[in-house]
Design brief:
The protein is α/β, with parallel strands linked by helices. The chain has helices spanning 13-18, 27-39, 47-60, 66-78, 88-102, 106-118, 127-136; strands at 9-11, 41-44, 81-84, 122-123. It has a four-stranded parallel beta sheet with strand order 3-2-1-4.
């Protein structure tokens, strides 16, 4: 039987933000949220900055209120989130190389590299990252 730590997965910002923005909700996104609550997730170090930036942009575009964003951040703090620390040399070399190879952003390469290194699934709603994960042989949750 797998332990909770073995059932973890890499969570990207696109899926995380779908928990905040009602127009991005889906059954798949809700299923990933429940798995995250039950087992916890791994994220690259830039995940929190990416999520916070997009949430604030969402407020400016009236997709969410400041109160909704605040509750969302409270919810995220309750999850068991393991943030992976990347050495700057790894970012400059490995992630840049993956970004070039798969034609994705360096941010997305961080999610892909983490899932590859930990040999766990990736939850993403980003079509480019989904295609890259498939090409790299990384299993997907969404």
């Amino acid at each position: 039987m797998l332990t909770s730590a073995e059932m973890r997965f890499v969570l990207d910002a696109s899926v995380t933000l779908a928990w905040l923005f009602d127009d991005e909700a889906s059954d798949n996104v809700e299923a990933v949220r429940m798995l995250a609550e039950e087992h916890g997730v791994h994220v690259p170090m830039h995940w929190a900055v990416e999520v916070a930036n997009a949430a604030i942009k969402g407020e400016r575009r009236r997709r969410a209120t400041a109160a909704q964003t605040s509750r969302f951040f409270d919810y995220l703090r309750m999850l068991d989130i393991v943030a992976d620390r990347q050495d700057p040399a790894v970012v400059l070399d490995q992630l840049s190389s993956l970004a070039r190879e798969y034609n994705i952003s360096v941010y997305d390469a961080g999610y892909l590299a983490l899932a590859e290194r930990l040999q766990i699934s990736l939850a993403t709603g980003d079509s480019g990252l989904t295609a890259a994960a498939r090409r790299a042989g990384v299993s997907l949750l969404v």
